[in-house]
Queue: 2 jobs
Job 1
Amino acid sequence: MQSRLKIHFQNRIMQTHLKLDLPTSQDNSNKFNANAQQAWSAIGHLVELFEVVFSTVSQLAFVVDLAKDHKGGIRLAFLCLVSPIYVLFSKRELWSRVFGIYASNKHYLRAKAFFNIATNAEYKQEVMVNGAEEYITEEFGKAEDALGNVSDDYAFRLFSRTRTPVPVILADFFRDLPLITYAIDCILHPEYFSVASLAMLQQTSESLRWTFYRLKSQKATMAEDLSYIKALYEGVSIPNTIESGDLSYPLDESAEKQVQRGMSIELRDVTFAYPGADSRNVLENISTSIPASSLVVIVGANGSGKSSLVKLLTNLHRPRSGDILIDSHPISAYSTTDLRRATALLTQDHSVFPLNIAENIGLGDPANATDRTRVEEAAKMGGASGFIAKLARKWDEVLFPITTSYASQYPMRPGDLRDVMLRVEKQSDISGGEKQRLVASRTFMRIMSGNIKLLVVDEPTSAMDPQGEFELFERLRGMREGKTTVFVTHRFGHLTKHADLILCMKEGKLVESGTHVELMARNGEYFSLYNIQAQAFTETPLEKNPS
Ligand SMILES: Nc1ncnc2c1ncn2[C@@H]1O[C@H](COP(=O)(O)OP(=O)(O)OP(=O)(O)O)[C@@H](O)[C@H]1O
């Protein structure tokens, strides 16, 4: 039952995540973080709560029953309840409250940071190449010294620690009180003494204390448990920032015309900021028109807003103000599913899924993901066939498998178990350039779907060799028929000469637009950027055009 319920919840959680668009999922105020284990635990806790309530009632009934047959029984029953009630109200427990834990001590944070840098494999290379070992050790020591006696004990324990021993002494006293009273009773009235009732009394008192304690903890977690389940069911109704319209894309034109035309895009006074209440504008007052089937190159320095502009063109984000028109209609009027189906985006973020190579490429066109001929063709176009052929399991190689393995002991001594552990779920890494080729192949798979009207390529070749980069761009350019193609690149020399339109960005603004010849004649930002590239190959910088 546990597995079934967990799968049910997992399915729900997955659907909620998949439904969210990019801005909604990046908006911290919308963080949907329900997990199936929590939901299952919540159900378990509720069942336990019923059990504890039942247990409390039956134990209380037993105490009353015992008290009835004993001289001074009512007094004894009352004393039995003192200890559990004291525990119920006196113990400071963090888990019984709504809480947030964080460390604010700057020396503590610094010591933790250096410890992390020294022990985390992720930083190993950077630490080594920078020769930072000594610095890390020294700074860690300084932070530790400055920290002095500040305890970094488990937060739960820190919270329940008491300054005086009085509460502990009182708790012990109340626990023993019924027995002490009973013992005095027995001395004064030996005729009432019974070993059986003494044992029962002690047993009942002990159980009651424990039951009350459980009751307290169950009550405390119940609100949290119920909120997990509520969050799980409310997740599906988190509204997306990018709402879908009804207009289908491509518009209902003759089939022949659709095949030949790419997407036309117009931006009117567009301003954009990333999600978050106080985020600043990263694009301001952008107005431009990208004709259907044109080849556009976006250039500009780091941080000038090229990728942000791409995110607007590809409908991953919406502007803060201004309008975007696709084929003369507002972008918001179209079905988001249709627009996504017609768009291929190859970016610098190369995500390799924890799936085999063939599926990693096939996912560019999910409808044909298992068509091996297409996948192989796409890999060839993306320049990935060469390295795939060298992998031990070729198309079936899973580069970054999901890790589930753990062993009882680590490090283990050489032997059978250690060998097995080293073999299972071994990550076989490939180079950065090879990863980019793999992701590029996925884009070719997507282009081959035949639905693409807008192809956007955002600096996907940072790790590729110049030959690989040139060939990739040429192949992508070769696929541009019937598509509007947008390239973002710092090494634009060989592309901008083919471009119908160059958009030159600077500090979030579109500072120049036109063809290569027009922009060179302006002696402006584009001229400077082009000149910097040209200088890498010529002795002297290009002369400015006479203005
Ligand atoms: N997800 C994000 N959230 C908040 N700000 C962001 C985000 N991504 C980028 N920015 C900011 O937006 C601005 C423009 O960034 P963008 O990535 O569009 O520039 P770019 O021209 O593509 O840069 P590069 O050439 O380095 O890729 C930068 O100041 C950047 O810090």
Job 2
Amino acid sequence: MKIYIPATSANLGPGFDALGLSLSLHNRVSITPSSLGSISIKGEGADRPRLKTHNPFVSIFHEVYTQMSGRKRSFRFEFENKIPLSRGLGSSSAVIVGAIASAYHMAGMRVEKENVLNRALEYESHPDNIAPAVHGGFTTSIVHEGKVYTQKKSLPESIKAVLVIPDRPMSTAKSRTQLPKHYSMKECVNNLSHAAFLSATFLNEQWDLLHLASLDMMHEERRMRQLPELFRVRKMALEAGALMSTLSGSGSTFLNIVRTEEAEGVKAVLKKAFPEYRVDTCAFDNEGFTIENS
Ligand SMILES: Nc1ncnc2c1ncn2[C@@H]1O[C@H](COP(=O)(O)OP(=O)(O)O)[C@@H](O)[C@H]1O
Ligand SMILES: N[C@@H](CCOP(=O)(O)O)C(=O)O
């Protein structure tokens, strides 16, 4: 079998741990039963020898497969990774969602998206990346009594992402421990009202309101201070015509949403201004993970 899992961008400014969207940038994993277990890695992560011996995809896959099928078995895993690691593009969620869904499939179970999503929450405490990795599109999620509830809206071809991807990794786990434990009433009200408004803005496709709706007071600027050039990225992207410009997940990538006809222009401006960073245009993904039999 082969599984394709999309990159995701979480928070979208004020929707900390709640809002996310799915990008047309996929990891592909091919899995075949084999008497000798083995791993090959191409693309992102290929330069990390540790991922050949301690691979979270492989560990989660075996844990779920053994539980579902009631037996242990060896497999060959071939990874072709396009999602950069630790850049705020949901690489860890792609691993978790991909490993669970493929383990269900190889164990002969029906792969129900809701089951994969809820199982994924056992490995990642916040649903904002795993929900779009499972369902695609723009997603808004809540967790109630340990269960994830997600509303999805497919995104049209009339908008695109322009991603600015610094070469500096930022660990999500580490960055979460550095956020404050308490927020003021003003900060809470700002984020609640903006996250609710941003969801409605996506649902109603009122793209001109995206920037206003995406203003955060909880995490973004604190995190951007680790790489102050990101303030310039945001300023230049908005001046070049981006509809919104937010830190992607915990960073270091910046997500700029643009009208499709303006994507190449915004990309050219950002590429020129930040030659040391990777700048790519990317369509949105509306499917979430997909499985192919081979
Ligand atoms: N393709 C991959 N294969 C194996 N492990 C991966 C892969 N992508 C990410 N990981 C794991 O996830 C970690 C990055 O997680 P995290 O800091 O949450 O970054 P991100 O913001 O990209 O999700 C990596 O250090 C690695 O342990
Ligand atoms: N809500 C999380 C999102 C982390 O996304 P990632 O792509 O950086 O893993 C957070 O802000 O910590």
